[in-house]
Every structure is written in C-alpha cells, then in structure tokens.
Design goal:
The chain has 246 residues and is α+β, with helices and mostly antiparallel strands. It has 6 helices and 8 strands, in the order ααββββαββααββα.
Length: 246
C-alpha cells in the first residue's frame, strides 16, 4: 500500500498546480462575469448612457457577458463628440476604474467658457454682455433642471444653490478673465459653446472699448505708467565728471 503514496502525492501536487494555473488564467473572465452581474443588478450605466470609465469616454452601445462597448468621444477630438472608434471595455473594469455617468441622477452638466479681455477694456460692460448671452442660450433649462435636481436629491446628496447662468470675474496674467458658467445637456455642450462664442465675437466687435486679450510680452516703465501715486521717482541726472577750464 505504501507504493501508492508517492503517486498520490504527485497527483495532489499536480492538481494543486493545475488549480492555481486555472485560477490565474480564469481570473479576468470571472471578474468580467462578476462585472456583468454588477452592471445588470446595480445599473451604474445602461445602453444609451454617456459615461467615462478610466481614460475612456463614450456612449454605451452594447452590454455583453464579458465586455461592454462604447462609441468613443473626446480623445484627439477636442470636444465631447464622436471619434468614430468603437471601444470594447472588459466588464471587470467597473471594479477597478472610476465610472462617471453623464446621464444618471442629474442629467445636466456644468460647462464653463472663459473669456479674457484686456486690462484696458471696460470689463464691466463685457460682463454684462456675457451675462446676456449666457441667459439667451441656457436660462430656458433652469426650470427643468430644478425639477430634475429635486428628484435626484431624493436619491443622491446633490445640492446646487444656483442653477441660473452666471459670469465669474478673475484677474489673470494677460487681462481680466470672465468665465461663463451654465448648465447644459452633455450631448449639446459643443454646439452651445460654438453658438456662445459666435455671439461673443459679434457683440465685442461693435464696441471700441472691449478687446479680447492674448498672451503678449510688454515692457512697463514704472516712472511714466500706472497710477501717478505709485510711480517710481525720476532719477536725478548724474554729473558728467568732466573738468571745465576757464
């Protein structure tokens, strides 16, 4: 009977190594199946949602047992529009990568359009113009967004005090930055920003006291420029040191 012991030990070792190998080989498929169950059960996203998972963003166009499929947006296209590529993402990624859903809960996103005018411009007038443009393109969404926010706040801790468009003021190196902030539906972000910029260019062109700023190199002579009280004193002329013989 003892002759069988080495054979049994060898078989046990073989089965142990085989089990370990199978566990390693099947780790990803098992994780993908678990991810599929999680997606179906918890519904972090559905077909038709726009999401970002890890470095990939796009519209969900298919859900499978082992992977889901995105119609990619962004990447080299500098906007939330389709690149034309289809991306297959393993379901297990929902356990390892953050998932951002553009549609779930509150289906609007905040977008910002920074506009920089020169220091010499009438920035108050520019701010009034930008506020009018922002209201024109985004205020119609406010009432609907408030209703959806009220519904979403029953499930998520979402609290926005102000949903109407607003323009913020900030000083930057090249001028005064006026940032339009407004709510928009995710798929309309680029189109709305395009329309806003066209209105800005059209409006600013009619005013002689408003100029868009850009990065420049400028020399500043502090003895002649700026506020008079802050100017540096003029240096007294130095004697030449030459001797004049009578």
């Amino acid at each position: 009977g003892r002759m069988w012991i080495p054979g049994v030990q060898a078989l046990a070792t073989f089965l142990g190594l085989l089990s370990a190998g199978l566990a390693i080989a099947l780790k990803d498929p098992v994780a993908d199946l678990a991810g599929w169950a999680f997606i179906i059960w918890r519904r972090p996203f559905e077909v038709g949602d726009r999401i970002q998972i890890g470095l990939h963003a796009g519209d969900v166009i298919d859900l499978g047992l082992f992977q889901f499929t995105l119609n990619e947006i962004g990447a080299w296209v500098n906007a939330d529009q389709s690149t034309g590529r289809i991306i297959h993402v393993p379901n297990g990624k929902v356990f390892t990568d953050p998932v951002a859903n553009y549609n779930k809960g509150f289906r609007y996103i905040w977008n910002e359009v920074p506009v920089v005018v020169t220091f010499e411009s009438d920035w108050r007038k520019a701010k009034q113009i930008l506020t009018k443009i922002a209201i024109k393109h985004a205020e119609h969404l406010t009432a609907q967004a408030e209703q959806e926010l009220l519904a979403a706040s029953q499930q998520y801790l979402i609290n926005y005090r102000k949903l109407t468009p607003i323009v913020y003021t900030k000083v930057v190196d090249s001028g005064v930055q006026l940032t339009i902030r407004y709510l928009i539906e995710p798929r309309k972000r680029r189109g709305t920003e395009h329309a806003i910029w066209e209105d800005i260019l059209t409006e600013f062109a009619t005013y002689a006291d408003i100029d868009l700023a850009y990065h420049t190199v400028r020399g500043f002579k502090n003895t002649d420029e700026g506020k008079p009280a802050l100017r540096a004193p003029m240096a007294s002329p130095q004697p030449s040191g030459e001797r004049v013989d009578e």
